[in-house]
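Residues and backbone
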Amino acid sequence: MSYEEILTEVQGRVGIITMNRPDKLNAMNARMDYEIRDQIADWNADESIGAIVWTGAGRGFCAGADISRFEASVQGENLDNVVPRPAQSWIDMIKTAKPVIAAINGVSIGEGLTRTLPCDVRVASDTARLSFRFLRVGLTPEVASTHYAVYLIGLGRTLELMLTGELLPADEAFRIGLVNHIYPTNQLLEKAVELAGAIADNPNWNLAKVKHLVHQDYLEHDIDKVLADESKIFRESQGRDAHKEALLAFREKRAPNFH
């Protein structure tokens, strides 16, 4: 499929999605939202892809929602044409997708930040700036960010950042755990793809099951249920070809080849 708002490429087992509205700092509109989802869905069905990197062109990752969306809503236009699909469907997609690394290459504001929180890994350039700047435009946080942010950085820090709309430098975002790693801007994509490649080397089935277990049980207080869930998947994994290949590779003193 030919896209208008994103660029795509494949490096090895890693798919790369680049939001491509640099003149708008990659502000999210309905077309871009659709294209990102469509490409992720396509790669989810492709066994040759093991992980996905999501980044932006130019000096911005995503400056939030395209303001024309909200102008249209105020003016009473048909919102089906201007508003991306519900946040719940974004979360559901990311939870069930191949592992997704958000490579935050520049400003990441509002929706541009909240959409990264359900991703499996967030990395940022050393020049990135992140902000939950919703109150400054008379809106409130979305994409379950009031849930994800608390589990990533804690209640007090979440409230401070959301209530002030502070523009957070990359090094501070790393210090508090909002991003996993920071890299020099000119190395960000290379490092993100390298990390994605290390993930993608693993068996697709096992990757999917790890994501499923974590998302299913990270809020579960019943440890017996968590153990039962893990044991069930563990037993299933023992009978799969990937485990057999790993055992054979161990005996032959070589790296396993899962693909």
Q: What stands out?
A: The chain has two domains: 6-200, 204-251. Residues 223-238 form the longest helix (16 residues). Strands lie at 6-11, 14-19, 51-56, 60-62, 100-104, 107-109, 121-125, 129-131, 168-169, 181-183.
